[in-house]
Amino acid sequence: MVSYIIRRLLMMVPVLIGMTLITFSIVHLIPGNPAQVILGETANQTAIANLEESMGLNEPYLTQYGIYVKDLLQGDLGTSLRSNAEISTEIWPYIAATFELTIFAMLFAIFIGVNAGIISAWKQNSWFDFLAMLFALIGVSIPVFWLALMEQWIFAQELGWFPAYGRQDNRDPIAPITYLYVLDSFIHLDFSRAGTILKHLILPSIALGTIPMAIIARMTRSSMLEVMKSDYIRTVRAKGSGQFLVIYKHALKNALIPVLTVIGLQTGVLLGGAILTETIFSWPGIGRYVFEAISYRDYPVIQSGILVVAFIFVIINLVVDILYKIIDPRINY
Amino acid sequence: MAEIVLELKELHTHFFTESGEIPAVNGVSIKVHKGEVVGIVGESGSGKSVTSLSVMKLIPSPPGKIVSGEMNFKGENLVNASEKRMKKLRGNEISMIFQEPMTSLNPLFTIGNQLIEAIRLHQKITKKEARKKAVDMLQLVGIPRADEVAGEYPHQLSGGMRQRVMIAMAMSCDPELLIADEPTTALDVTIQAQILDLMRNLNKEEDTAILLITHDLGVVAEICDRVVVMYAGQIVEEGTTREILKDPEHPYTQGLIKSLPNMHEREQQLYSIPGVVPKPKMNSVGCHFAPRCEFAFERCFQENPGLYALGNQRQSRCFLHEDTEGKVKKHAKADIGS
Ligand SMILES: Nc1ncnc2c1ncn2[C@@H]1O[C@H](COP(=O)(O)OP(=O)(O)OP(=O)(O)O)[C@@H](O)[C@H]1O
Ligand code: SF4
Ligand SMILES: [Mg+2]
């Protein structure tokens, strides 16, 4: 197992190098002078020269890339042009916000999706199967922004069950530790605050989790149906076991292998950019951070945001690979 | 004779598909006595597997359904048995092993886990005792390093070893009846002989009745006491192994025996019955074998022959057993020839 993980980690190295090359090139792929583009049409020559100097744009590309990677290795993501703050410290609360939302959205998606998929396969062609697959079809085709707006309208505005915006009650903000607010409120042993924060999570989680949920449900169903036809399932039946053991032990574990791939991909997608959802729910996540940076032409932030998201993607891939290995003893590479 | 363990009476298992109703098992009657090894032989598609899965009530349903008939297991008609009752019987009193040892074990659980599960489904014993029993069973079926193998996954074992594991699993609760659906077909010849030996020993030692399905008459000669020959969902001949091999009555059985390789060692070309088993159809007219039968005459295409009783548990489904006065006679082929 350990050697497997080490091999996987080594395989990540070229991917990471590729990623830094791409984010590095972002600045240089803009037509014209990057400093000029960043500062805008009206900027004067001294300001441009100063920026070029401070960003090291006068050095040869290779040197610039070397410095960029060296800085990254030391955890230095550069300085935001807009706020003048260190990006590596500034970015964490945004990552944490996205992270927390993604976790809840995916928990929702996995729990409902996997179970609906199992029951649909179990009771194939029943009314449950029919309804579940109809919902799944609607789920994958529904525009997320529309779903988010409907949720806000019904559950926040009309019924008043959940707040419509933000991560917390801004009149009484939490003293952040990890910036994962649910975790923080448990660290503070402040359970009523945990309740409020969870309430803030519900609507955006559902909005964000609906597409993955639908995809997972369909994947689980088809994978289960496939597995249920296999010889080893017939063997389990021939042993005299009941449906429950057949489905939840033997079939599910096998059926989960392809579902796991989908879960990993969807988690990556959510982490990468839920800009629409984050905007509608005023969720201060990484998508919003990068989005705003774009409108300010804050290139160091754009670079870092993309790099961080790509990095998280790679990590998720690693986790999925490790989970494969745990589930399937045949994997050996 | 010993008590009857399994008695199928006029069993009909049909599949209801888009292209119509398929009588895959079309009125099959078979008796299996305690300690007896009964073979079902026939080419691919003759309904052997559907017959055996019917007994376990593991026919994929839909589209399959037991439409009529009886399946009496120690006097209890399983056709009416509830799923709950069947769960108690499966793997406990009636066990089954399958043709495909490579895919019949769950790849994600250890051999031990799957054996222990089979044991604990029917015996109220602790995990530890079950594990010990599992290892004992593995030893019994001749698996070396049984203790280690229990901790291994199916992909780490060869086909022959996996089939031994399947047999260990099937025998772990000491069943009255073992149904083996082509247990050796996927294995090479030496392994095949070992597996058959193993089954014969279990049959002798535990007095387990075995219903052995195969399309290989060599396997039948090796292990069976009695043989039922199936064709297109029906029994066409039944007799002791000796009778069937030495003295086949039905033209189909004769064809099967003629195509056995070892009886024709010197011949260049192996004989094979021309054509293939037809897909069973509802209300088909004439002998099912007629299109391929070298003795077929007019009547064979107009009427379905019934089974002609030729003695104690000896029967054959062929019009040639009827003489000119409508009486039953043996040795149909010899008479035609003269
Ligand atoms: N799931 C199914 N759906 C429809 N028809 C089926 C199904 N399973 C079996 N049949 C029909 O039943 C007939 C008998 O099949 P069966 O598997 O019993 O043959 P067999 O004698 O075991 O052949 P083999 O030697 O290939 O295993 C086939 O001709 C097929 O048309
Ligand atoms: S009944 Fe006719 S066709 Fe059928 S086996 Fe006998 S001779 Fe051949
Ligand atoms: Mg078969």
From TrEMBL, chain A:
**Its family?**
Belongs to the binding-protein-dependent transport system permease family.
- Compartments, as annotated in UniProt: Cell membrane
Task: Identify the Pfam families for this entry.
Answer: BPD_transp_1, BPD_transp_1_N
Q: Cite the ABC transmembrane type-1 domain residue spans from the record.
A: 95-324
Gene Ontology terms: cellular component: plasma membrane
Q: Which organism is it from?
A: Oceanobacillus oncorhynchi
Q: Provide the protein name.
A: Dipeptide transport system permease protein DppB
Tell me the name of the encoding gene: dppB_2
Record InterPro entries: BPD_transp_1_N (IPR045621), MetI-like (IPR000515), MetI-like_sf (IPR035906)
TrEMBL record, chain B:
Annotated membrane topology is: Peripheral membrane protein
Which regions span the lipid bilayer?
none
Which biological processes are named by the entry's GO terms?
A: peptide transport
Q: Which cell locations does it reside in?
A: Cell membrane
Q: Which GO terms describe its molecular function?
A: ATP binding; ATP hydrolysis activity
* Keywords carried by this UniProt record: ATP-binding, Cell membrane, Membrane, Nucleotide-binding, Transport
- Alphabetized Gene3D superfamilies for the sequence: P-loop containing nucleotide triphosphate hydrolases
What residue stretches are annotated with the ABC transporter domain? Answer: 6-257
Say which domain of life the source belongs to: Bacteria
Q: Which PROSITE patterns match?
A: ABC_TRANSPORTER_1, ABC_TRANSPORTER_2
Q: Which family does the record claim for this protein?
A: Belongs to the ABC transporter superfamily.
The protein depicted here goes by the name Oligopeptide transport ATP-binding protein OppD
Name its species: Oceanobacillus oncorhynchi
- Which gene underlies this protein? oppD_5
